[in-house]
Specification:
The protein is mainly α and 440 residues long. The chain is built from 17 helices and two strands. Helix 2 packs across helix 5. It is elongated. It starts with a helix and ends in a 6-residue tail after the last helix. The structure holds heme C (2 copies).
Length: 440
């Protein structure tokens, strides 16, 4: 009984509090008038920037300029539907920012609208991350802030962590798979590599004479320009059609010569990390995909996933997984050294030494880097084993070896998928065969 009474009292009390609250809030909202938004058009500059803060001038404005303030849309001249989104005051004026319910802000809602999504198709939808950045900026008060980091880090630069974000914020909107202004898709690493080598990329972002200034509507910030420049200077891009002005330094591990062929033959195999299978989302077919999905931290092998998985105890978790053989200690230390040296996309023109050709010193290392990964273990590709001298000798005798590596005639080209041994490797193997394929 007493507990029943108690309940009743509590309920009455709660009801009373509730009514008082409602009255208070009615009175409050009746007296309050909408705050006049003071549109500050000079950004608040922060030199000690926080990674938790979204900066309008650095992150929001470039996105709006490249995806909304484009010609025919919301630039100052065309002002589609009377809406202009070119600077802070115009974004506040036309963006329908809802400070109390940020996710109901018009400028945010239209990004995901079913009927009239902005930017309208075929322009790509903003990515989930880009939408989140905008929402966070509104949640943080939609202020006109700017980060002017005094220090620009031009040392720790990697393609996925430094260059891709710059391109994503400033270029992808006009240069992606669907929209290729000027015929250019900048999500394609080969394209970026090409315009980096021929000077076009720097010419454009530095707005030099003779280049179309990119991005067209606003200048890239100075730090991004410096970072791109430093990345280009530190990268040895493979010259189109090879070249011979990149001598090999014996203490350097070269990605294109040593790491890529090893990963292609040991990891990018059918059913594993080729583009079609992409097991666990990991693709290991070229520099960009290896750095990104292999989660390589330049300079830090122990924090690089691709390196760590080579050492897993569980043979199913270890890469390449059982029944494939683990990489050899030499192969593992090659990868370690390459990461320690900065995991660069480098290349060198090896001098072709054909004087002391031996099986163990010349032929077998080529097989190990380029063939063994697919042609070993319990289920070798094409039912062909390449794990020792006898098996290689057999392929010499039946004519297959030279056929597949020269990629001639009826033979299946090996390694597959457009890769080919270097002229030097092919010449070396040919000499070894001419010498009578000694097991030396
Ligand atoms: C608002 C859209 C837009 C943005 C953003 C943009 N571009 Fe462009 N881009 C164009 C248009 C339009 C063309 C073709 C006309 C021209 O060449 O001026 C073009 C052409 C190009 C070309 C080929 C031009 C040539 O001479 O071969 C390259 C390369 C390029 N842009 C790179 C970039 C880079 C790098 C960025 C980012 C830093 C960028 N663009 C940002 C619109 C854009
Ligand atoms: C990415 C995996 C992969 C790599 C690396 C690879 N192979 Fe193959 N290889 C295959 C597959 C798969 C087949 C079966 C071909 C088919 O049926 O299309 C095959 C078939 C072959 C054949 C039989 C060819 C034929 O015409 O029937 C030979 C010989 C061969 N490989 C040798 C090599 C040599 C030598 C290398 C290194 C230079 C190499 N492979 C590298 C996957 C690979």
């Amino acid at each position: 009984m007493s507990s029943f009474n108690f309940m009743n009292k509590t309920t009455y009390f709660q009801l009373a509090v509730f009514i008082v609250l409602i009255i208070t809030s009615l009175v409050y909202s009746a007296c309050r008038h909408e705050p006049d938004i003071f549109i500050e058009d000079k950004p608040i500059i922060s030199t000690n920037c926080s990674s938790d803060t979204v900066y309008f001038q650095n992150e929001i404005l470039p996105l709006l300029l490249s995806t909304c303030a484009t010609s025919g849309c919301h630039n100052a001249i065309d002002a589609k539907e009377g809406i202009v989104l070119v600077d802070y005051p115009s974004v506040i004026k036309f963006g329908g920012i809802n400070f109390e319910h940020p996710e109901e802000s018009e400028i945010y809602e239209v990004l995901s609208s079913d009927d009239d999504r902005m930017p309208p198709p075929p322009a790509p939808e903003w990515s989930a991350e880009q939408k989140d950045i905008l929402l966070n900026w509104i949640k943080q008060g939609a202020i006109n802030n700017e980060c002017q980091q005094l220090e620009c880090d031009t040392i720790n630069i990697t393609y996925p962590e430094t260059i891709i974000p710059i391109l994503q914020n400033n270029c992808y909107s006009c240069h992606n798979e669907l929209i290729q202004e000027g015929g250019v898709n900048l999500k394609d690493y080969e394209t970026v590599s090409e315009i980096s080598q021929n000077g076009k990329l720097l010419g454009m972002i530095k707005r030099l004479n003779g280049y179309s200034p990119m991005p067209p509507n606003q200048e890239l910030d100075l730090c991004s320009v410096q970072q791109i420049e430093s990345w280009i200077n530190d990268t040895t891009f493979i010259p189109p059609g090879g070249g011979n002005d990149h001598p090999c330094d014996p203490d350097t591990v070269y990605f294109q010569n040593e790491i890529l062929p090893l990963l292609l033959s040991s990891c990018a195999t059918t059913g594993c990390h080729d583009e079609q299978t992409a097991e666990d989302g990991v693709v290991l077919v070229d520099y960009a995909s290896i750095i990104e999905t292999g989660k390589i931290k330049p300079g830090d092998p122990d924090d690089s996933e691709l390196y760590e998985v080579l050492f897993e105890d569980d043979p199913e978790e270890r890469m390449p997984p059982s029944p494939k053989k683990p990489l050899t200690p030499e192969q593992k230390s090659l990868i370690e050294k390459w990461i320690l040296q900065g995991a660069k996309n480098n290349y060198c023109d090896a001098d072709c030494d054909t004087t002391n050709v031996t099986f163990s010193g010349s032929v077998w290392p080529v097989m190990q880097t380029n063939c063994v990964g697919c042609h070993s273990g319990g289920n070798p590709s094409g039912d062909i084993l390449i794990t020792n001298y006898e098996e290689v000798a057999l392929l010499v005798d039946n004519g297959y070896l030279m056929g597949v590596i020269k990629q001639e005639g009826e033979y299946k080209p090996m390694p597959p998928n457009g890769a080919k041994l270097s002229d030097c490797d092919i010449a070396t193997i040919e000499i070894w065969i001419k010498n009578g394929k000694p097991n030396d």
